[in-house]
Design a protein that fits this description.
alpha/beta; TIM Barrel; DNA polymerase, domain 1; 2 domains; 7-stranded mixed beta sheet; transferase; Error-prone DNA polymerase; 5'-3' DNA exonuclease activity
Length: 280
């Protein structure tokens, strides 16, 4: 099997609908796909239905956005019970926090002389998870910046003039939420987060996996995360972080894949977690 375990749809900040994403996965020869939208599960019903239609195994997932002392840290969740009330309630608080954060960034941009509004940002949102990519899209559309990547680099990244920190949700809290939803919590793109020192503590909180294979990891980084996975008995995952955006910083669907061994390991870990959850 060939699987890309990290993808996004229009339910958050991706450019393709869930059905379009699954159709593309089929044409790319992928047999399994992790659909992991930011802080929402709104695209999973459509993705699972499309997976059945196109004979692509869809692994229901989510990518939770958190803030650690080192900066932004993302936690992926796989095989989640995506209709579980506790998970949906948590995601609703995240959605509200995203809206408030976006409004504050729009306010800062106005102070900097950029004539944009929340109404314009909302027009860019096709799903539930509003965020910086939608602000960037407005800036591009209105001619203020040449690309989404440029908007992030000059205005929206940490340390830039319009940046506003996320709501204070800790990585450990995200791990807890995913475990309670019967899912496998995995540290996303650790090479970007630069939070290797946090891994032992997260393992103590219940972290179950690490995304060793990622487009921006070089061979040395991949090797380091494979070693850490072995040391802490973590499942190994990999994915492209596909958003459907054609810019130099974004990888194509299937750019990073895992095979049958990793998929089976992930599924076994999910089954173990679900058994443990029934005993609580």
């Amino acid at each position: 099997m060939a699987a890309d375990l990290h993808t996004h749809t229009t339910a958050s900040d991706g450019r393709l609908s869930p059905t379009e994403l699954i159709r593309l996965a089929k044409t790319k020869g992928l047999t399994a796909l992790g659909v992991t939208d930011h802080d929402t599960v709104a695209g999973l019903a459509e993705a699972l239905a499309a997976g059945n239609s196109y004979s692509v195994k869809v692994i229901p997932g989510v990518e939770l956005s958190t803030e650690g002392e080192e900066g932004e840290i993302h936690i992926l969740g796989y095989y989640i019970d995506w209709q579980k009330e506790s998970l949906l309630a948590f995601l609703e608080t995240m959605r509200q926090a995203r809206y408030r954060r976006t409004a504050r960034m729009v306010g800062r941009l106005k102070e900097l002389g950029y004539d944009i509004s929340m109404g314009e940002v909302e027009q860019e949102v096709r799903g539930e998870a509003m965020g910086r990519p939608h602000i960037a899209a407005v800036l591009v559309r209105k001619g203020y910046v040449p690309s989404v990547e440029f908007a992030f680099r000059t205005l929206l990244e940490r340390g830039r003039p319009a940046y506003v920190p996320r709501a204070k949700v800790s990585p450990a809290r995200a791990v807890e939420v995913i475990l309670k939803a019967g899912g496998v919590p995995v540290l996303a793109h650790p090479g970007l987060s630069r939070a290797d020192g946090l891994i032992p503590a997260l393992v103590g909180s219940g972290l179950q996996g690490i995304e060793a294979y990622y487009p921006h990891h070089d061979a040395a980084a991949t090797g380091r995360y494979l070693e850490l996975a072995s040391r802490y008995n973590l499942v190994v995952t990999g994915g492209s972080d596909f958003h459907g955006i054609v810019e130099s910083s974004h990888a194509g669907l299937g750019a990073c894949q895992v095979g049958t061994a990793e998929l089976e390991q992930l599924q076994r870990r999910a089954e173990k977690i679900k058994v443990q959850a029934t005993k609580v």
